[in-house]
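Aim 2, interim progress: modelling of the flavin-adenine dinucleotide-bound target.
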Amino acid sequence: MSTPHALESQFVADQLALRTVIANGVRTQPEGDYILYWMQSTHRFEENWALRHAILEADRLGKPLLIHQGLDPTYEHANDRIHTVILENARALHRRAERLGLRYQFVLRRRRDDDRRVVDRLAARAAMVVTDLFPTAGIAERTARFAARAPCRVVMVESHAIVPSGAFVKEEYAARTIRPKIAKLLDLALEPVADRPPRKALPDSVWRSLEVDRVNFARFNVSAEVAQCEIDHAVPAVPFASGLDGARARLDAFVRDGLEDYAERRNEPSDTNGSSRLSPYLHFGQISAAEVLRTVRGAAHPESAKKFEDELVTWRELALNFCLRNRHYGKLRGLPDWVHRSMEKHKDDPREAIYSLAQLERAESHDELWNAAQRELVRTGYMHNVTRMLWGKSVLLWTARYKHALDHLILLNNKYGLDGRDPSSYGGIQWCFGKFDRPWFDKPVFGVIRPMSLARAREKFDAEAYIRMFPA
Ligand SMILES: Cc1cc2nc3c(=O)[nH]c(=O)nc-3n(C[C@H](O)[C@H](O)[C@H](O)COP(=O)(O)OP(=O)(O)OC[C@H]3O[C@@H](n4cnc5c(N)ncnc54)[C@H](O)[C@@H]3O)c2cc1C
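Predicted structure of the complex, ligand included:
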């Protein structure tokens, strides 16, 4: 491994230049008490480019740094499942912050009419606000609204991708167009950086004077707190070892037992270690994709590592590019023209079945394999990649309009999936409708969108074993 770059190196400056977007036209306020890092999507301190930028700005202006994370009941699909993951990780972050010399606070807004202006009050005393650049989960919209009223400069920094998202300024057409561009930049982007805390500590007097009701993790019972929140309690928490330790344990288990035969085992949905199952950790930013890739490359399975790299980097960063560069990423309008021509031609084709959202949600289709996939999602917060493709393609066939299919899939995926609301959620779902793909042979309903069939899938993997794992 090469010697880590210092935080103030040219390397870090170059990477940050490609990850940073200024969100408003307001100037830095030199009299501010601190630099505020508002943590929204990158829930970690390690390999966090927004945090790096905030530390560098704090040092440049001679200010301390305050890291703030909050959780509201107002985000889309706010439920026990998502709340629990975020709060358990926050507890771990709180413990780690002290060790790393960072000042981190977490504020939980339990009810909709509780104090809703915490970040505004913190920004009123800040020289500058740094936050995460993230296109989905309502974060881009929330940041834009905040930046428009903030009294100081607001800067967004992307930490989701290994290769900085700013390296690709246009929407990429397909995996084959972004793959060679990523290949040229990946090794450089993976070079390690020596992280360190800011030079100036936040004075206790400032910490105490902030008017915030921060969580005291010394006496904090996550499930009792979640029960008090004004959120959807019908989507319960699921077993999940939230946090960097959990992510590293999952990664180690996969490298030990799954990576060697990843190319084959990833095609078997009943094989629980055949793929990494890191998507929730990556979604919440609990572990960086760079750490995952370095670990996988360090294992002695170069062929499998290459295949895994293609999923983790090419497909994941293609999805990020799509959501950043196509504002219709959650709509049929985000799809290419050939898909629209095909959908127009086939919109009135007879469907083999039409299901309502409620029937789909309750896993009441005529196909037990599809129902098992839906039950996996609802019960565990995860669905295997192979069944996810079949799940999405089938719903396209089972609604009266393509738009209903897209809306139902996005809702179910994002409501139940621990990895939902992610750029990869939209990339994956839109792939079912032809995004990133090419036209195939014309068929009823699918038109020239690549078809997939639940019946044919049964010949390729052990569907019965999978169905048995998620019984009605
Ligand atoms: C209909 C549909 C919905 C999807 N919804 C989501 C979602 O909500 N969240 C999500 O993270 N992924 C989603 N995907 C992509 C993919 O199915 C999951 O990322 C993958 O199954 C996660 O399992 P894993 O962590 O074991 O993946 P692994 O095979 O171990 O791959 C490692 C990582 O690479 C990334 N990755 C793998 N495949 C893809 C892909 N096709 N597109 C983008 N990134 C990928 C993920 O971050 C994943 O954790 C969806 C795909 C489809 C077809």
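Residues 302-325 form the longest helix (24 residues). The chain has a mean pLDDT of 97.
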